[in-house]
Specification:
The complex is a heterodimer of chains A (377) and B (482). Chain A is of the alpha+beta class. Chain A has two domains: 170 residues, Uridine Diphospho-n-acetylenolpyruvylglucosamine Reductase, domain 3 (2-Layer Sandwich); 179 residues, no CATH class. Chain A contains twelve helices and 17 strands. The longest helix of chain A is centred in the middle third of the chain and has 15 residues. Chain A starts with 5 loop residues before the first helix and ends in a 14-residue tail after the last helix. Chain B has 18 helices and 18 strands. Classes of the chains: A alpha+beta (377), B alpha+beta (482). The complex binds flavin-adenine dinucleotide. Chain B: Pfam families: FAD-oxidase_C, FAD_binding_4.
């Protein structure tokens, strides 16, 4: 099903009898998602408002991410949360997945740039929440609730987003000699000083990567003092190219399994990533943790190889043998991006589960929106 | 302010309820002396007051849970309270409600500078979080003007902002997790590393829910390394609209100051008389603060100067010393106090797209003229969060009603240009009945469903946020079931 208007979409949901999977570009599905009849929002397109001076853009959910980014770029603006691009990705899908790239470490996730939503709930009712202004505490923040809700509470039809001016200068420092574990203290040092770091990651074969952005003079000054600070951890070099694109295109978001890691490990990149490529048929896990837990997680999982660290080592992408789960210290969370496991680890506690199920029942009383079966722990 | 008729059954059982609360509160205190309970009859919106049934001041999450279990069983309404500085009546009680005050829960539970986080009990004041990490070179970014008094739990309740949120975001953008007790006494932890839970963003919807979903007892907050330095500039203009247009131009140019504050003539005059900051004689002024090392600050100020010149400012004053910085901020920081000297005032909090500033400032001036009530403007211009202050005399019969009517008109204008009723103070009881200007029935129904899940009997702070007639059927269902 591919409605062209919000009203048509609402009608389809009202008329639906069996499970529906709300799909944007279908580029960020997790294992087990996309069951039942697919309800595509890809034909709900169009940027309905763009006010560069107010830093706001409003677009229908099916608008291609690429189209929005191109329009913003023409005014030297961008989405601060740096959504991982994927061919065919829609803005509704980006928001439903809360897909956020490296700059999340400084400017927050997709949900933090999201100002307002319109959606159709499971009863076919059209709901709007938030708006298009920077500060808004009028009523409950369903905007946050919808971001990352992955089509389980409603079908997004329109989103409004905060934009960000692109600063004149951007510079990346690399510490190529560092392995994943030894990159963590370097990333932490960069993030705990006055450098306004906008990216702090690690990639196999590239080492630790640290980005600063801003006015020209300021970037130059900060690069100097930051290099000095980082030299305690290993040789520091400025990068001429843009390694963040590599990271964004391949790593931290939610991409279709099989597709997402292709670029990074294909020979065409010309990068040597020996020993780090995911085993064929292996599992890929996304782990969020405190940076101080990252090294522990790596030691606790000797069979795993890290594919990337991002957000200052708050995000770890691990490649594991098929059908294995990562061992996790308390307070961390994991999700299987590729493999057989369904649902988060650890599974939600009974109170959280009750609240989540309660919300699903209220927003979708007939249980129309498909949810993947969870792996029983 | 109309509030629901208090539950007579609850009031009749007051002694029993207080005894049950005393039996479970452990190290905490239950106040039932009417004179002492008076201290909790209102918040900073002091025009509306009502002494509560009783006040409970717990000291641990377990005590909070025990109190809520008793109130849940007895079907007693509960009003969570931090420091009671809400400007919207958010922590104002009803006669049948127990105020659950978090003020005694103010400990720091953990600080980790490498992980850039601090965990505190929710009664801890906002400023004392920053003070705690200051020596290590860190700060907690959201800084409401009330930060000396207001509590983290109240900040989470209202999703509060501050002067620096233009660069650093508001509470929700700096909140990593909470421990919260639901009305039935169950304890839940929301959020996680990066503020992310395992599934739905429950933390996101709890923040800003005005104490209607649960009582937050602990919070994990993002702390940030302090910038090398900060310096303000003051720019004077001969018209408010020009100042508004200059704000839009600065935002657009990609300089990202930490704060852009706006004051118009009535406000400049009042603060000049009150605190003598030595402001220029002009129609409107902007205070813009930038951060960094001295050369970085110079670079940003040069850019701001170049943009401002295009708007023919009557003055461009660049701070050259700590003392000059202090004087530039002095007037802004004493603005509310200064307005208080002039008489009573009502502070609005609508937010508009920055591009609509000139139009809305003009509209407010016209409405003020027509209503015959002076309006002064002092606000966070960078993110369009306006604070028109309507000046009046509370002792003159009819004035309060006229002020409320003008306030409602101004807020409707904010909504009309694409904005909202409240940018940081919350709806509370104050703007409850204006919600229909911004939301359809279906929009409000969707929000109320969330409360149905967290608090099925509508016991937590239940007569707030939604227009009374809209939420009434839900409260009535509880009374009928009792
Ligand atoms: C002079 C002055 C200046 C101000 N400046 C600003 C400003 O710059 N920016 C801004 O955003 N606000 C400002 N405010 C408004 C107010 O200070 C904020 O709303 C503040 O966050 C309230 O905190 P509090 O601890 O006083 O909360 P309270 O007034 O006690 O409560 C506020 C709301 O939160 C709920 N709540 C309180 N504690 C909890 C808890 N533990 N769990 C769940 N819910 C809870 C209450 O039920 C209520 O709905 C100002 C107020 C004053 C008086």
């Amino acid at each position: 099903m591919r409605p062209e208007t919000e009203a048509e979409l609402a009608g389809m949901i009202r008329a639906a009898r069996g499970p529906l999977s709300v799909i944007g570009g279908g580029t960020r599905l997790l294992p087990g998602e996309g069951q039942g009849t697919r309800l595509s929002t890809a034909a709900l397109t169009g940027i309905t408002l763009y006010e560069p001076a107010a830093l706001t853009v409003v677009a229908r959910a099916g608008t291609p991410l690429a189209e929005i980014e191109a329009l913003l770029a023409s005014e030297r603006q961008r989405l601060a949360f740096e959504p991982p691009p994927a061919e065919g990705s829609t803005i509704g899908g980006v928001i439903a997945a809360n897909a956020s790239g490296p700059r999340r470490v400084k400017d927050g996730a997709a949900r933090d740039s999201l100002l307002g939503v319109r959606f159709v709930d499971g009863s076919g009712e059209i709901v709007s929440n938030g708006g298009r202004v920077m500060k808004n505490v009028t009523g409950y923040d369903l905007v946050k609730l919808m971001a990352g809700s992955r089509g389980t509470l409603g079908a997004l039809t329109e989103v409004s987003l905060k934009t960000q001016p692109i600063p004149p200068e951007s510079l990346t420092l690399a510490l190529p000699d560092l392995d994943a574990a030894s990159a963590v203290p370097a990333l932490t040092a960069a993030l705990t000083g006055p450098w306004d770091v906008t990216g702090a990651a690690w990639l196999p074969g590239h080492g630790a990567l640290i980005r600063i952005e801003g006015l020209e003079g300021s970037v130059r000054l900060r690069a100097d003092t930051l290099s000095t600070r980082l030299s305690a951890f290993g040789p520091v070099q400025p990068r001429e190219d843009d390694p963040w694109l590599l990271l964004r295109e391949n790593i931290p978001g939610w991409h279709t399994p099989g597709k997402q890691f292709g670029g990074l490990f294909s020979a065409s990149q010309g990068q040597s990533l020996s020993g780090a490529a995911p085993r064929s048929g292996g599992a890929i896990w996304r782990i969020t943790c405190r940076p101080s837990q990252a090294a522990t997680i790596l030691t606790m999982n000797p069979d795993a190889s890290p594919i990337a660290l991002d957000w200052g080592a708050s995000l770890i992408l691990l490649s594991l043998p098929a059908n294995t789960r990562p061992s996790l210290p308390a307070g961390t969370r994991a999700l299987c991006l590729q493999g057989t496991h369904r649902g988060p680890l650890p599974p939600p506690d009974p109170v959280t589960r009750r609240l989540e199920e309660g919300l699903r029942e209220r927003f979708d009383p007939r249980g129309i929106f498909a949810a993947p079966e969870l792996t029983v722990a | 302010m109309l509030m629901p008729v208090p539950d007579a059954g609850v009031i009749a059982r007051r002694e029993l309820i207080v005894a049950r609360l005393r039996a479970v509160i452990g190290a905490g205190t239950v106040i039932d002396d009417p004179v002492e309970a008076r201290a909790y009859e209102c918040d900073a919106l002091s025009a509306y007051r009502c002494p509560p049934l009783a006040v409970a001041l717990p000291t641990t999450t377990e005590e909070v849970a025990a109190i809520l279990r008793v109130c849940h069983e007895e079907r007693v309404p509960v009003v969570p309270r931090g420091a009671g500085t809400s400007l919207a009546g958010g922590s104002m009680p009803t006669a049948d409600a127990v105020v659950l005050g978090l003020a005694r829960m103010n400990a720091v539970l953990e600080v980790d500078y490498g992980d850039r986080l601090i965990r505190v009990q929710a009664g801890r004041t906002n400023l004392s979080v920053s003070t705690f990490v200051d020596e290590a070179g860190f700060f907690y970014a959201p800084d409401p003007s009330s930060q000396l008094a207001c509590a983290i739990g109240g900040n989470i309740g209202m999703n509060s902002g501050g002067a620096h949120c233009l660069k650093y975001g508001v509470t929700t953008n700096n909140l990593l997790g909470v421990t919260m007790v639901l009305m039935d006494g169950s304890i839940v932890e929301l959020g996680g590393p990066m503020g992310e839970g395992a599934g739905l963003d429950l933390l996101g919807v709890v923040c800003g829910a005005e104490g209607q979903l649960g009582v937050v007892t602990e919070a994990a907050l993002r702390i940030l390394p302090k910038p090398a330095g900060a310096r303000p500039v003051l720019i004077g203009f001969d018209a408010s609209e020009t100042a508004g247009a200059c704000v839009a131009a600065i935002i657009r140019a990609g300089v990202l100051p930490v704060a852009i504050e706006f004051m118009d003539r009535p406000c400049i005059v009042a603060t000049e008389n009150f605190a003598r900051p030595g402001y220029p004689d002009c129609e409107a002024l902007l205070i813009i603060e930038v951060e960094g090392t001295p050369p970085e600050i110079d670079e940003q100020i040069a850019l701001i100067r170049a943009i401002a010149e295009e708007f023919s400012p009557v003055e461009f004053r660049e701070s050259k010393s700590e003392d000059e910085s202090r004087r530039i901020w002095l007037g802004r920081k004493s603005a509310f106090g200064a307005m208080g000297q002039m008489g009573d005032y009502m502070c609005l909090d609508g937010t508009i797209p920055v591009s609509a500033l000139p139009k809305v400032l003009r509209g407010i001036a016209e409405m003020s003229e027509t209503a015959g009530l002076p309006v002064a403007n002092v606000f966070h211009a960078g993110d369009g969060n306006m604070h028109p202050l309507i000046i009046f005399d509370a002792n003159r019969p009819g004035d309060l009603e006229r002020v409320e009517a003008l306030g409602a008109d101004i807020l409707r204008l904010c909504v009309e240009v694409g904005g909202c009723l409240t940018g940081e103070h919350g709806v509370g009881v104050e703007k409850r009945d204006l919600m229909t200007a911004q939301f359809t029935d279906a929009d409000m129904e969707a929000q109320m469903r969330v409360k149905d899940v967290f608090d099925p009997h509508w016991l937590l702070n239940a007569a707030k946020v939604f227009p009374l007639h809209v939420s009434e059927p839900r409260r009535e269902a509880r009374r009928n079931a009792a």
